[in-house]
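Board work, copied verbatim: PHF24 protein
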Amino acid sequence: MGVLMSRRQTVERVQKVSLAVSAFKDGLREQPSTRRRAEAGTARQGTLEQEVQEGEEEASAGPSQPEESSASKAAWERLRDGRGVEPEEFDRANRFTPPAFIRPKRELHDDEPPDISLEQREQILNDEMCEICEVWTAESLFPCRICPRVYHDGCLRRMGYLQKDSTVEVTETAHTETGWSCYYCDNLNLLLTEEEMYSLMETLKNCKIIPESCLTLDDFLHYKHQVHKQQFERTMPEAQEEQAALQFNALDPDKKGHIEWQDFLSHESIQLLQKIRPQNALLRLLTPKERERARTAFLALDQDNDGFIGEGECRQARHTWFRKHQKEMLSCNVSISHVGPISEGSPASSRNSKSPEKILPATKQEETRSIDWPGFLRENVAYILAARPNSAALHLQPLA
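↓ predict structure ↓
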């Protein structure tokens, strides 16, 4: 045990030293630029005519092409590294250095079916110390609803992950039934391997998608048409176009007329995971909190305790348990160890009358087809993963 602890301490010490070195390097990068400006100011002591001529040439030239390509390159690098949107004007003075995200790697056994028992419940435990500062301060720690990590709001703010109204969102939702996803779990793009990420980047580049930009409905449909034509070498059917339009509306819950870049990226990431990885590999991405929440949902629907539910009930869970919920449904008087949102179809709200418009009608075929626990997980795993981000957008619209 002593050897294991010493190794962990060594790793943590190396990580902290790396953060300090990176911050020192950032300071060194700024110093040469200051010296260059001073040297340039001394060298430009020429005639008034030369200064005027240089100013006219700079004004007529306008923004140079290398600067634009440099900004575009930086955006693609942020996309590749999973860092999200980082505006150039964002002031990182007196802030912690964000960690370097390491993309996952596929393992040989990933495609084999995982052993997720329905009867054996899992104990949900959160970490005791803040993920960032590694300090324990009890009630002031905010837990992630997906993983066991906990955070201080002040540490998140110094990391640059809380801006504007984000602090209020974390403090109001972290201890509620809906919960809050940390910056690891909020970004579905971090589930992609390097190979999968490069594949997505190639698709975006071929379709002329500008990273970190918003997409209108026309932009979204045009992109979907291009992707379909590249993949199948034929025009996208009208039914799929209608489904794409419904997906756009789901990604734009506030009806702003466009979807944010992060929501579009999360949607494309989960779509790519569905296409490339088998369902068994997706099941291995579920955390204990998500698996426990799925158990609760299945057992609530299995009224006769025979281990099977109808297809209509499975579809109902997809439209209630595994989708976003409005903030007015939140309740602050709950335990922080709860594993996920409570909807109108959940056991905790079974005492209340169910809203008829929330329950989707089941066809006769759906009523006759039975689904067991492994089938329930396989059919809903993508929707469980898609519900991770804090955004109100539905990153994977369930089929009607």
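Confidence is low (pLDDT under 50) at residues 1-8, 30-48, 58-67, 326-362.
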